[in-house]
Design brief:
With about 350 residues, the protein is α/β, with parallel strands linked by helices. Among the domains are: about 180 residues, no CATH class; about 40 residues, no CATH class. It has 13 helices and seven strands. The protein has a seven-stranded mixed sheet with strand order 3-2-1-4-7-6-5, sandwiched between helices. Strand 2, helix 1 and strand 3 form a beta-alpha-beta unit. The longest helix is centred in the middle third of the chain and has 53 residues.
């Protein structure tokens, strides 16, 4: 099956059940990784890679510096600091002081990469390394924040469920079928309601850091960019409006389930089954998205048709009452590639219009 080269951004791992439904839409998704496989990469990401649903690109692998980077991230994580505050304050200037400790502390590791020893000979190379080092730190802390936020939400949901059960027992109430407690989506909704939105300023930093890695990757010819963050799209839309004097064209209507499985194995099995049953429909969707990326008349009629067919098939396999729904919007930046909006050299000369798919 021919497909558009698709990149997920600015996420760098697959760690949440909320991400699993994305794989229904695209035959294969590329993810940029902060470190090579033996580093920060999640086991769940490996599972999707082994199932041929995604692939990982690690720009500028750390190599011999991998262990030291992991040590630094481990020290940050073990301190249990406010990760959101760290994202906000993580700047080169804030990490430029030296340490007198003989041990290779967190500060010493950072300084070695962020403070050039020989400004006359190594300045450019060190500055480049410093930017990539900082970008990796921002993204790593961001993923830690996401994982811990999800874990807290799950724990809160379990506490809410226990409290509700206790109150029902005290009142002598029993659960009924109408309560919706037998629906797997009901539990997911309870978890989702406990999430706190990541501050847009932090997401801007993560996008900037992701762009640093993306510019060094083998995927600057990507044609389709997928995000679960409305803030990321808003940043790109603002840039586009300033440069072109107009807003991107948005095409809503497509839907995804909120949930397709509690484990990677469940999600992969559901994805493979849906893709096998709807191979032609996915091909039609890809054709329509390709038309959006090309200069010329936009395929509004084809989009309406494929959206209706998709949502109808989705209801057959994942009924909304049981699995919930998440909206999908295709956003077209006429005359501007996403690379141009990110200020990254564009190696894909064929695509005229940038495409950003926002999920959620």
């Amino acid at each position: 099956m021919n497909s558009l080269k698709t990149v997920l951004f600015p996420a760098t791992v697959i760690h949440s059940i909320r991400q699993y439904p994305i794989f229904l839409l695209f035959p294969k998704i590329t993810i940029l990784s902060v470190t090579e496989a033996q580093g920060l990469q999640e086991e769940s990401t490996d599972t999707f890679i082994n199932s041929d649903l995604c692939q990982v690109d690690t720009p500028c692998p750390l190599g011999e510096n991998l262990a030291r980077f992991l040590q630094l991230v481990g020290e940050i994580q073990n301190r249990k600091d406010d990760y959101a505050a760290q994202l906000s304050s993580l700047t080169l200037a804030a990490m430029s002081s030296t340490t007198q400790s003989g041990e290779e502390s967190e500060r010493a590791i950072i300084n070695e990469f962020l403070v050039p020893k020989d400004l006359s000979a190594e300045e450019n190379r060190k500055k480049h390394e410093a930017k990539l080092w900082q970008a990796r730190l921002v993204l790593a802390i961001g993923e830690i924040l996401d994982r811990e936020e999800e874990e807290i939400a799950k724990n809160l949901s379990m506490a809410d469920e226990d409290t509700s059960g206790l109150l029902n027992a005290l009142r002598g109430d029993g659960e009924t079928e109408e309560s919706g407690q037998d629906s797997p989506f009901a539990e997911l909704e309870q978890i989702t309601s406990n999430f706190n939105a990541v501050h847009s300023g932090n997401m801007d930093k993560r996008l900037s850091s992701w762009t640093q890695l993306f510019s060094e990757s083998n995927n600057t010819d990507a044609q389709l960019f997928v995000t679960t963050s409305p803030d990321v799209f808003a940043t790109l839309a603002e840039t586009y409006e300033k440069e072109s004097g107009t807003n991107p064209s948005s095409y809503p209507g497509l839907e995804l389930p909120r949930y397709i499985g509690w484990s990677e194995q469940e999600a992969i099995a559901a994805t493979k089954a849906f893709q096998l049953e709807n191979e032609q429909l996915i091909a039609d969707l890809t054709t329509t998205l390709t038309a959006f990326a090309q200069n010329g008349e936009q395929p509004e009629k084809a989009w309406d048709d494929v959206t209706k067919d998709w949502n109808r098939q989705l209801e057959t396999r994942f009924p909304e009452a049981a699995w919930g729904r998440t909206g999908v919007t295709v956003n077209v930046f006429r005359g501007r590639s996403v690379n141009a909006l990110l200020k990254v050299q564009d190696s894909n000369k064929a695509a005229t219009n940038g495409i950003v798919v926002v999920i959620g």
